[in-house]
Amino acid sequence: MASATRVFTRALRPLARQAGGATPRAAAQRTFVSAVAASKRAVVAAPKFAAVQTRGVKTIDFAGVPETVYERSDWPREKLLEYFKNDTLALIGYGSQGHGQGLNLRDNGLNVIIGVRRNGASWKEAIEDGWVPGKNLFEVDDAISRGTIVMNLLSDAAQSETWPAIKPQLVKGKTLYFSHGFSPVFKDLTKVDIPEDIDVILCAPKGSGRTVRSLFKAGKGINGSFAVWQDVTGQAKEKAIALGVAIGTGYLYETTFEKEVYSDLYGERGCLMGGIHGMFLAQYEVLRERGHSPSEAFNETVEEATQSLYPLIGANGMDWMYAACSTTARRGAIDWSDKFKAALKPVFNDLYNSVKEGTETKRSLEYNSQPDYREKYEKELEEIRNLEIWRAGKAVRSLRPENN
Ligand SMILES: NC(=O)c1ccc[n+]([C@@H]2O[C@H](COP(=O)([O-])OP(=O)(O)OC[C@H]3O[C@@H](n4cnc5c(N)ncnc54)[C@H](OP(=O)(O)O)[C@@H]3O)[C@@H](O)[C@H]2O)c1
């Protein structure tokens, strides 16, 4: 098992090929050269991948419900290179996902170019990551015109804002890719009305683009979901899966654009981010109001959760975490979880309604379209950073053995 993992890691080791941009026509002319290059690479890499071809498409029983899961071992690197040999992947936007997906595609040897605003924060970051202006870094329109697969990783608000300029360039034969169902699903609000003659696919990594990158570099892969919005070529599903593997996912779950966007907006506002922050704050404030010190309140609210108990849930589930704690803790936790569930379920139902009705989308579009959205977020994050709980957290973290 361990040696198979090592073999896989070595096989994924970056080649750091810097891809050049090309128009779709030029991409076709490149076919012969790419095919020769790909076949040479395949000769070198094939045995390593062949050694780990043990998994693939699987039907898994998820608590009694069978679901099909797609796994990257069906798409070894040489197959990806062959599959995308005529394509230029124009990745638009270089935020967290653009960074992770773009670098992974580049390291996988695919022909990827970046499109961002000249001299914006992303342009500078892309240069720091080794993208070269005029070679594989372009302005958005220029990149789209060179791409056969347009990977729209602009912020969701920017996808809506820039759509009038992007739409005319999405001519027949191109493929449009998203990492979120937001723009097409809420098209009444976003105005992203997609031409009917192109394939439209989605791959949404289940995590930050930073993790997409760090897991890839570690030879692992993040979980992701994929979906098809429009299939005019009959190849859309296959393309979505192949691209999902190429950007660095390990397992891919099939979904729809609607289900992806509803569950994603709901989850990040709930247990993943907003809900958990609200719960931390409520618990911390009560402890402080009842006379506990900042360090005690922080340790009992955040530190023990993130450092000890949540990783146990992640590793083996809730029952395992309960079993790893004292009978006193277990009794109270099991009793109180029902009360928390009863109190919170109406809030989660309100949240789901707000997502489905488009209220969350409207809010996101309005706020994130403001020219000074970055400054405004920085002000809000500064306020959070300065809350007593997180200042106490900084002091507690500095005392961790690894930070001494
Ligand atoms: N982050 C995640 O964890 C995550 C996970 C899964 C899926 N997704 C999805 O992936 C997509 C990208 O998200 P992200 O978090 O990587 O990026 P993001 O931070 O939301 O967006 C950043 C990018 O949008 C560009 N941008 C913003 N306003 C623009 C405008 N008016 N014109 C042109 N460019 C503009 C920025 O360029 P400048 O630097 O020039 O401003 C930057 O390159 C979204 O659909 C998101 O929902 C994100």
UniProtKB/TrEMBL annotation:
Top-tier EC class: oxidoreductase
Cofactor: Mg(2+)
Domain KARI N-terminal Rossmann: 65-255
Binding site for substrate: 326
Highest taxon listed in the record's lineage: Eukaryota
Positions bound to Mg(2+) 1: 264, 268
Keyword Magnesium attributed: yes
Keyword Zinc set for record: no
Key words, A-Z: Amino-acid biosynthesis, Branched-chain amino acid biosynthesis, Isomerase, Magnesium, Metal-binding, Mitochondrion, NADP, Oxidoreductase, Transit peptide
Chain ranges of the KARI C-terminal knotted domain: 256-403
Pathway assignment: Amino-acid biosynthesis; L-isoleucine biosynthesis; L-isoleucine from 2-oxobutanoate: step 2/4; Amino-acid biosynthesis; L-valine biosynthesis; L-valine from pyruvate: step 2/4
UniProt catalytic activity: (2R)-2,3-dihydroxy-3-methylbutanoate + NADP(+) = (2S)-2-acetolactate + NADPH + H(+); (2R,3R)-2,3-dihydroxy-3-methylpentanoate + NADP(+) = (S)-2-ethyl-2-hydroxy-3-oxobutanoate + NADPH + H(+)
GO biological process, one term: L-valine biosynthetic process
Residues given in the record as Mg(2+) 2 binding sites: 264, 300, 304
GO molecular function: isomerase activity; ketol-acid reductoisomerase activity; metal ion binding
EC annotation from Swiss-Prot or TrEMBL: 1.1.1.86
Localisation: Mitochondrion
Family per record: Belongs to the ketol-acid reductoisomerase family.
The protein's name: Ketol-acid reductoisomerase, mitochondrial
Cofactor binding mode and count: Binds 2 magnesium ions per subunit.
GO annotations of cellular component type: mitochondrial matrix
